Amino acid sequence: MVEVADAIRFILNDEDITLTDIKPDTTLLDWLRLERRLRGSKEGCAEGDCGACTVLVGRLMDDEIIYDSVTSCIRFVGSLHGTHVVTVEHLRGKDGVLHPVQQAMVDHHGSQCGFCTPGFVMSLYGLWMRDPDPSQAAIEKALQGNLCRCTGYAPIIRAGKAISSYGRPEADPLWAERIALKGKIRAINDGRRVELGEGADRIIVPGSLDDFAAVYEANPTATIVNGSTDVGLWVTKFMRSIGPVIFINHLEELKRITETGSEVRFHAGVSYSEALPVVAANFPDMGELWHRIAGEQIRNMGTIGGNIANGSPIGDTPPPFIALGAKLQLRKGAQRREIKLEDYFLAYGKQDRQPGEFVESVTIPLLPDGEKFAVYKISKRREEDISALCGAFRVSITDGVVSTVRIAFGGMAATPKRAKAVEAALVGKPWTAETVEAAIAEFAEDYQPISDMRASADYRLLTAQNLLWRFFYETTGQGQRLRREVA
Ligand SMILES: Cc1cc2nc3c(=O)[nH]c(=O)nc-3n(C[C@H](O)[C@H](O)[C@H](O)COP(=O)(O)OP(=O)(O)OC[C@H]3O[C@@H](n4cnc5c(N)ncnc54)[C@H](O)[C@@H]3O)c2cc1C
Ligand code: FES
Ligand code: FES
Fold first, then answer.
1. What's the CATH number for 100-171?
2. DSSP code of 33?
3. Which helix (H) or strand (E) is 457 found in, with range?
4. Distance CA 343, CA 358 (A)
5. Ligand 1 centre and the CA of 262: distance in Å?
6. pLDDT digits over 213-266, tens only?
């Protein structure tokens, strides 16, 4: 018999919060500003893009508190059970003295209208706590998810570099109080399920992975909310009702990553940030893509499981994972099954998932020695942008001849999809420009892309073809990349 608690509990700055009446779709930003009158966090876009609402959320990981910058506009209050939420109001000392991050921003003229400033301060604060002497690249990465319309970024980056000359993290209250904070967070995470509300207002926070499996099997129409970087927008942009909800982002078992030497298994709750070191070590050719998924806050929140489960044709992980031959582990109650990732995507908005079944993990075989692999993301902005198309290529060459090849694209069809006609035109042929030239025509067989705000159909088709050229030239080291103009 599972024990059930009836309150969402977390720490807000230095206050213990207990909520017994909260709606599934109440965002942290609204709650802070409207209920708590903490108006430092701003609403710029309400879709995770601008970073004006950035706060830190601390959670226990290997018995340490890890603070992630997150966008509070698309984080739901119900998902905060067992965390420490830190807002910009917490930074100034009780004596009124500005925090080192704030003082550095003032002294380096890092603010004009100030609307974006609390978000920048919180992103820089999160960075300084884990990396007090960051490189310029680290600062730029931490600020990928923060937009400023008037100051420009150079003064803010200068401020970011200077913070440690104003103070060190060891003197920060969060560091000084971490033992007490850990104790509180540990006490809240007591393994009990939390349930509140009725009908569409019902919130369920399972106590464990097994509990989640049982609860979802019994409530198959509930909305699973993982990192909420998609579901958040259903609420803030599409005004959709999402209740009843099951929040799963806190489940440590869903954050496991297993490396066996021949494959890597990511459980569904692993965020992009958590996956990064393992991706970099095992799939270095995916590194550039990883840094171009969203911005830092969204990478801290968004999960691999959510990116696959949502079935989007333009999610960035399915094309490379499909090219690498990934398998998906699905679970319903105690029953588990495994399918090829490419078979999960049946049609637009339709996936091979039964009522009450969820994505538990994805397993990716390591690339055998000598095989060539690349993934290319094409988007209008370098970061914080969804792909117009994303293409992944994997080829093995034996004695100059293509022995196996897998090509998969997002943004070219209603689902992430393999280019089987192109593959058939390549396999068994010498890996030469003539072979590539002959295979190029097959793209039109595999894909009939659409025109939308991200790209025209012609652009998509031509770019996909050119990416095969790029892969060919990169893998053969021949001369310059071929350039073709869009007609
Ligand atoms: C500003 C911004 C930038 C973005 N940039 C990118 C980008 O560059 N590339 C990209 O690919 N995506 C991008 N996204 C989209 C999003 O971040 C990703 O798709 C993310 O991986 C979704 O994961 P999540 O955990 O937040 O999913 P959620 O929003 O929690 O859930 C998404 C869907 O999956 C379902 N779901 C979640 N987990 C499971 C599970 N374990 N089993 C079954 N169903 C589940 C939910 O019910 C929901 O239908 C961006 C989003 C934002 C807001
Ligand atoms: S308000 Fe823009 S990211 Fe939250
Ligand atoms: S200071 Fe005005 S938006 Fe950044």
1. 1.10.150.120
2. I
3. helix 457-476
4. 15
5. 27
6. 999 999 999 999 999 999 999 999 999 999 999 999 999 999 999 999 999 999
Q: Who lines ligand 3 at CB under 6 A?
A: 111-117, 148-151
**CA-to-CA distance for 326 and 252, rounded, in angstroms?**
22
Ligand nearest to the CA of 232: 1
Domain 4-90+176-247: assigned CATH number: 3.10.20.30
Q: How far apart are the first and last CA of the chain?
A: 65
C-alpha span between 385 and 325 (Å, rounded): 26
Quickly list H helices, 76-148.
Answer: 100-107, 117-130, 136-142
pTM: 0.96
- Sole residue written with tokens 């990928």: 144
Ligand 3: centre distance to CA 75 (Å): 23
Quickly tell me which residue has 């890092």 as its tokens. 110
The answer to whether 363 and 265 have CB atoms below 8 angstroms apart is: yes
* Dihedrals phi, psi of 255, to nearest 5 degrees: -105, 10
From the list 246, 205, 187, 220, the residue with the least C-alpha distance to 20 is 205
CA 487 / ligand 1 centre spacing (Å): 34
Collapsing DSSP to helix, strand or coil, 139 comes out as: helix
Give the three-class secondary structure for 429.
coil
For residue 319, cis peptide bond before it (omega within 30 degrees of 0) = no
The angle formed by the CA atoms of residues 173, 115 and 152, to the nearest 5 degrees, is 100
- Helix %, strand %, coil % for the chain, to 5? 35, 25, 40
The pick from 53, 148, 156 for probing ligand 3's pocket by mutation, whose C-beta has the most ligand atoms within 8 angstroms, reads: 148
Paired tokens of 39? 């108006």
Whether the CB-CB separation of 357 and 332 falls below 8 Å is answered with yes
pLDDT digits (tens, 9 = 90+) for 3-48: 999 999 999 999 999 999 999 999 999 999 999 999 999 999 999 9
User: How many CB atoms within 10 Å of residue 165?
Assistant: 11
CA 331 to centroid of ligand 1, rounded, Å: 19
Assigned CATH topology for domain 256-476:
Enolase-like; domain 1 (3.30.390)
Position with higher pLDDT, 158 vs 384: 158
Query: Relative to the CA of 249, which ligand 1 atom is closest?
Result: 25
The SS3 call for residue 416 is coil
Q: How far apart are CA 65 and CA 84, in angstroms?
A: 9
Which of helix, strand or coil describes residue 332? strand
Residue nearest to atom 23 of ligand 1 (CA): 306
Instruction: Tell which phi-psi region holds residue 90, choosing left (phi > 0), alpha (psi between -120 and 50) or beta.
Output: alpha
Structure tokens at 211: 């509990």
Domain definitions of the chain by residue range? 4-90+176-247, 100-171, 256-476
